[in-house]
Design brief:
With 700 residues, this protein is of the alpha+beta class. It contains 27 helices and 20 strands. Helix 7 (197-211) packs across helix 8 and helix 24 (618-637) packs across helix 25. The radius of gyration is 43 Å and the shape is elongated. The N and C termini lie far apart (118 Å). 30% of the residues are buried.
């Protein structure tokens, strides 16, 4: 029997009985090996080599090229199955290319194929052929059972000729070991610098005691602090430690202390958890007005007062006191998260309060008047009661009145976490749209002194509160609702509203319920003078009957409209269903033209004129009313700047007038009722000076 020779490259090293030999040549008697210990040569035939090989005494170590990188040498110590799946898949992909080249060269040696030369053109041809074959295999079911492998094969790019040549060199120099084709991802970047233990301890202590503080020192301050500590350490111990650069120190801090650990130390655990914890995505609402977000914003525009019909000085450079500057208005707005439609709003000079929230809620549950643009009527059929009202933690949103209104009308109040404006991102995003597009009018404040520059808003202001309200109604109905919205897949809010309209919206049983639910809830007894609240009294014959039947100690559920002090609603809960009683104010001359906020200011002024041990008299209230009205009117006529409280008295002292004409004829055709949205107005109720119907005319 003829035993074949075992092939190995010329000059390769082999181990025969634990002695390293070098293969010199092959002769007729066998293979000649030279010992690297004593230099002697030995000859072994094919049968002898096979016997030594299978008995474990003849070993052919893998021949590694001296120029092989250290990373590849480390990979050769591991089998291909020990690497992660994605690195195994990449190595198998590279193996397809190098095996193809090796097969072509083998065919050339055997004379079965054309001559294969290792040049860029040949490498590129092989790369295109193998890549095309792999993509075809990915498209045939069953050839690649793994779906991820098929997807990767379809999307992989064709390697370039230099890349393929580099793979071939790595494979051959490693002794044709597949592990040499594994990507060296774990060795990317420079080798980390070996730091002195004393320097590491010093920097870690500086981070714990100086950097991880709520005051939030910067990395530059930390670098200066560490440099000083290093100098102090060198003087005390005689060491020669060198402080790191600012960039290297930053890498040390982020590598040794995690971002969450630093955030928990500097921002407190709750805020750090909000930043790093995974957040559950809320399901999108399926109906219009299912979820409504509400918030306030101070508009970037300055408004002026229309001072009793007197012409305003509009020349450039006029003194601001003579211009009658009223201030910047607040916008309270509610937006539907499903359709992005503006459901309700309220614009006032008063800061956010319970009154502004109630006005916005009434606007939400009221029909909007059509607006006219270029002679064409634009409808705004947006109204409805929410299932969930999403709001922040402002005091006005935690008021008892709003919670009582939610309980009566049947919707839920969902409070967002503190300092998390992204929880109601729809309304926050809309406020940015308002400031960029709507507030670009004479008197714009630009939001900051840096952006404002030399522009003087008080000298350029022209718009009154009545004009702002009407223009905002036109802007919402004719511009914002008709503009493509990226969050709605480039549909308009009105198109989405029309699509969801067949699903319907919820509303209270009657329009009267809206006014009652948004009133100020009270629990009061019926005294001899009726129901008393803030030095005012409400009484009627029905209340006298309840007082005689149930006494003066029992308290009754009441509701007072803060914009209409003439009447108070009282419910008789002794019968089913409850009877609604409307009691009239017994001091109509004192409250004429006043709302609840103005009355509180007048009452406080009267208390200042009354001795501490005495009760406020009716004559003192009347005198305080006359004084506040006259003083506000006198300052207003003189052009002096008025505070918000005095401004309301000055406006109430003048007779209610129609909204001033708008700059364009088309906008002037829009009725002023677009800024009111009162259920009482829709029902045809008569307008009173202190009611919500005429509230919009106070600042005209």
């Amino acid at each position: 029997m003829i035993v074949p020779f075992i092939n190995f490259p010329l000059g390769s090293s082999v181990r025969i009985e634990d002695v390293t030999h070098t293969y010199m040549s092959r002769e007729q008697a066998g293979c000649v090996f030279r010992s690297e210990v004593d230099g002697r040569t030995v000859t072994h035939g094919s049968k002898e080599i096979a016997s030594l090989y299978f008995s474990g005494k003849f070993v052919i170590p893998r021949q590694l090229h001296p120029a092989l990188p250290a990373g590849i040498r480390e990979n050769l110590r591991r089998s291909l199955s020990e690497f992660p799946d994605h690195r195994q898949a990449e190595a198998e992909r590279r193996l397809d290319y190098v095996m193809t080249i090796d097969g072509l060269e083998e065919r050339r040696k055997n004379g079965d194929g054309t001559l294969f030369r290792r040049n860029a053109r040949r490498y590129a041809s092989v790369a295109r052929a193998v890549a095309s074959l792999r993509r075809r295999r990915a498209g045939v079911p069953g050839l690649l059972p793994d779906a991820a492998a098929r997807k990767q094969a379809r999307a992989e790019a064709t390697p370039s000729a230099p890349t393929l040549r580099d793979w071939m060199r790595r494979w051959e120099r490693s002794g044709r070991e597949p592990s040499a084709l594994v990507r060296l991802d774990d060795r990317k970047g420079r080798k980390p610098r070996e730091l002195a233990p004393a320097l590491v301890d010093l920097m870690a202590e500086a981070v714990r005691t100086f950097y991880r503080q709520e005051e939030g020192p910067t990395i530059r301050l930390l670098h200066e602090y560490v440099a000083g500590r290093v100098q102090q350490h060198n003087r005390e111990t005689g060491d020669r430690l060198t402080p790191l650069t600012e960039t290297a120190l930053h890498r040390f801090v982020t590598g040794r202390f995690g971002a969450r650990e630093l955030a928990e130390a500097r921002l407190k655990p709750r805020k750090a958890a909000m930043r790093f914890d995974a957040k559950r995505r809320r399901a999108s609402p399926k109906k219009a007005c299912e979820v409504i977000e509400i918030d306030h914003v101070l508009l970037d525009v300055t408004v002026v007062r229309d001072r009793g019909g007197e012409p305003l000085e509009t020349e450039e450079g006029s003194h601001r006191r003579k211009r009658g500057i009223a201030g910047r208005p607040w916008l309270t707005l509610a937006i539907c998260t499903a359709t992005r439609c503006v459901v309700g709003w309220s614009i006032s000079l008063d800061p956010p309060s319970y009154v502004s929230v109630m006005l916005c809620l009434r606007s939400m549950l009221s029909a909007k008047a059509d607006v006219s643009v270029n002679g064409r009527a634009v409808v705004n059929p947006v109204f409805g009661m929410p299932k969930v009202l999403r709001l922040d933690n402002g005091k006005e949103f935690h008021s008892l009145a709003l919670k009582a209104a939610a309980a009566k009308l049947g919707f839920e109040l969902l409070y967002c976490p503190r300092r998390a404006p992204w929880e109601k991102g729809r309304v926050e995003r809309f406020f940015g749209e308002v400031q960029r597009n709507f507030a670009t009018m004479p008197g714009r404040t630009f939001g900051s002194p840096e952006r404002r520059g030399d522009y003087r808003p008080h000298d350029r202001a022209r718009m009154t509160m009545g004009e702002i309200r009407v223009l905002f109604a036109i802007w919402v109905a004719a511009y914002y609702h008709q503009k493509n919205h990226r969050g709605l897949f480039h549909r308009t809010p009105m198109e989405v509203w029309q699509e969801m309209s067949p699903l319907g919206v919820d509303m209270p049983p009657s329009a009267r319920d809206v006014v009652v639910a948004t009133a100020l809830p009270l629990l009061k007894p019926i005294q001899d003078t009726g129901i008393e609240y803030l030095e005012l009294h409400w009484d009627c014959a029905e209340l006298e009957r309840l007082r005689e039947l149930h006494g003066r100690k029992r308290k009754w559920r009441c509701a007072l409209d803060p914009l209409d002090l003439t009447t108070m609603t009282v419910w008789d809960d002794t019968v089913e269903p409850n009877v609604e009683i409307r009691a009239t104010c017994q001091e109509p001359d004192l409250i004429e033209g006043l709302d609840l906020d103005m009355w509180k200011r007048l009452r406080n002024r009267s208390k200042e004129r009354t001795p501490e041990s005495e009760r406020v008299r009716r004559e003192t209230l009347a005198d305080a009313r006359v004084e506040m009205f006259e003083r506000a009117s006198r300052d207003d006529r003189a052009g002096k700047p008025l505070g918000r409280g005095k401004q309301k008295f000055a406006d109430a002292a003048r007779p209610a007038r129609a909204v001033a004409a708008l700059p364009t004829p088309e906008a002037a055709e829009a009725p002023s009722a677009a800024a009111t949205h009162s259920p009482a107005e829709a029902a045809g109720a008569p307008a009173r000076r202190g009611s919500v119907v005429t509230r919009s005319q106070y600042y005209d």
